[in-house]
Every structure is written in structure tokens, then in C-alpha cells.
Amino acid sequence: MRKGLVKFLVWVGAFSLLGLLVLQVYWVHNTYLLRQQAFADHVYSALNKTTGELERVDEPMMKIHSPDISNEGKEPVLLDSNFFPDISEWVEVQIVPTLEERLDTAMVKELLQGFMEKEGVKAPYSVQVVDHLGKVFWKHSMLGLTNPESDVYSVLLFPNDPLSKEYSIEVRFENTRKYLLGSMGSMLILSSLLLLSIIVLFVYSTLTIHRQRKLSEMKSDFINNMTHELKTPIATISLACEVLGDEDVKKSEQSRDRYLKMIREENIRLGMLVENVLRTSLFEQGQMRMKVQDVNVHDVIQSVLKSFDLQFKNRRAMVTEDYQSVSPIIEGDPMHITNMVYNLIDNALKYSLENPIIDVKTTDQGRYFVLTVTDQGIGISKENQKRIFDKLYRVPTGNIHNVKGYGLGLSYVLGVVSKHRGMIQVNSELKKGTQFVVQLPRKYEEVN
Questions:
Q1: Fewer CB near the terminus (10 Å): N or C of the chain?
Q2: What is the pLDDT of residues 179-191, one digit of tens each?
């Protein structure tokens, strides 16, 4: 997949996810507002039903206390206010009963509670009767709510009585928002989980696409390098075979032996390339069997360095050997240990500039044999040091184009060290060189 297309798809996915998040927040907010309005409607409905029932019960009492002022068949009597300057001093007229006589607080509490339950309002509340000045006539609280900033819902106590509009019945809820959000709890949790799942899947998919693209690039690089590495010995063998068919070469035993040696060397090189790939594949699958025996690592190192003689001469390399270990014999697989040392030396040689300087040192550290390979080559950046042991990964070499390989050497080295229950450490600085420190236990312990 092209890099530009991947970026485009990631941005489209990110904007889609952001849009989905905004829509989700908008939907939840609107749902909350609708529930808030529905809650207020239910509370006012319960209050209106309560006051309506109170008026119905209060109606007979009002008829008893209401005076008969009909005067049917009689002439109206007009009183001169000048003749009766203060009639209130000797005439007592009672038109309506007092609130104490009209209001049954137990009935108010019972009616309101019943209507609240029918309307589905389950939040705790306090109820009180107040006059138009805010003076409390009667109060009842379910949980002793005292928050002055609580949500208040108020209606007239006797809305159809023109002479009693100064009293109201109020219901207070201490935290309506908490109650409403609690009623939306399952919806909010499910919505959040779905949104979180989508975000996690998007991030995981994005990282997977990024890793797959990187892996695809490394595989392409691996195929190109592997093809180049294989073509060289194949071309050399093919050319040598053609030359051997020449009559003059057939007559010269020295020339024939030289070309036969060339074929053998290129054939060995070709076999090593294929073997490296197969060994790494077996390590990845966990099928590599270890043939454990006593191995003198000093002998292995000297043997590997001897096999590099021709390359050292061609590159004018200077190699120093410092064998400080007094106990170089360990339990391990000699073939894998040899290949491990070979890859470390080969890596130091490949990533060095002209006239490479390579130091090989051995020491003892408790129950571990320690091998240190140091070069003064191009070095490895901190960012690349984290990935040098990844399969198919090759350290970028900038303008240096003579570095061959296909990103399996250090991955194989790590596999060998792990199989022997050892440890490997890399210390490197750009343009100053790289140091690999390998610690191998002297006793091999098989771990299932």
C-alpha cells in the first residue's frame, strides 16, 4: 500500500472518529436536556394533581364558612361610611377560614408522595408551604435537604381560590443533575464502552497498518538484498563453469584447479546464505534443537577470525585480540556459537569505514563468560538501537552503499544468546563506533 494512501486513510479515519465523538456528545447532551424537561413536567404534574385534590377536599369547608349575601327579594342596604366611621370595631366579619383550618399537612405529604410515585419521580425531595414573602408555614424533608441552591419547583396552593393566592407549595431537589445522570447510567456506560472500543480499534488498526507497511518495506529490502547476494555466487559459478569448458583451460591444470576452487568457495557462500535464512526461520518457530557440549570459545573466536583473513586484508583492517578469560569453556552448541561470533565480526567489519579497527576481548564475570566486540565504525543512533535485533531490520547507512546483508544477522545472534540463557548489550554512538557485549553462562540449563 502506498505511503500517501495510508496517510489519507488514517486522516479520514481520525476525522470520522472525531465527528463520531462530537455527535455522541451532542446526542448525550440533548438526551440529558430532554430528560431534564420530562423530569420537570412530571414534578409539576404531581404538584398540580396534589393542589387539585387539596382544593376538591377544601371545597365543602369553604361553603360552610362562606356567608349568605344573596339578599334576594330585598332592597339593598347602603351604609354611609361617615355615619359608621369604624365599623370594624364592633362588627366582626369572617369570610374564609385560616390556613391552619384548611390545610391538612399529613394529606399534603401523602398526596404528593403518591403522585410523585405515579409520575416516576424517585429522587429524594423536601416539600414546604410558603407565603408570598417566602415565610415557611409548613415543611417536610425526606432526607433533611438544606442546600439553598437546590432546584425548586413551585405552584400555588389553592390556584382557583381568588382570596388565597399568597400561599405556594414548593418541592426542592438537592441534586437533579446527579439524579438525571444516574438514570442515564446504563446508556452512558454502553455509549462510552462502544466509543472507547472504536477508538482502541482505530489506534490498533493504525499501528498495525504502520507496522505492516514497515514490514513490507523491510521484506522488499530483504528480497532485493537476498537476490543480489544470491546472484553474485550464481553468476560467479556460471562464469567459472563456462571458462572450464574452454580447451585452453582444460589443458592447464593450474587454471582448472583455480576455477574449481572458486566454484567450491562460491558454493559454500551460497549454502551459508540459505542456511542463515533457514536457521532464523527455525528460531522464529521455536524448532531449533541444541546440540549441547563443551565449547572453548577462545578457539571458536580464533577460528572465525582466521576465516576473515582475506576480507581483513582487502579492507586493511586492524584486529586486536585480548583474551582475559581464564575459563573460556562453556556448555553450548558449537555451531550456533561459531555463527554468533561470525555475525558479530561480520557486522563490525561491514559497518566500519576505511581501514577498520576491531577489538575482540573476553573476560569472566561470575558464572558468565563475557565476549566484547568493539569497532570504530559509523555507529548506531539511539532510535535505531531499539530495533537492530528485529528480524529483517537493517541500520540505515546514509551515503555508504557498500554494506551488504539482509537484516538477519543480529536477529540470529539474539536468538543464539537467548537459547543459551545469556544476555546481550549494545553500546553505540554515531560516528564513533559500536560495542556488543555478550554474556553466556558456563552451564547450559534447558528451560521448557
A1: C
A2: 888 888 888 888 8
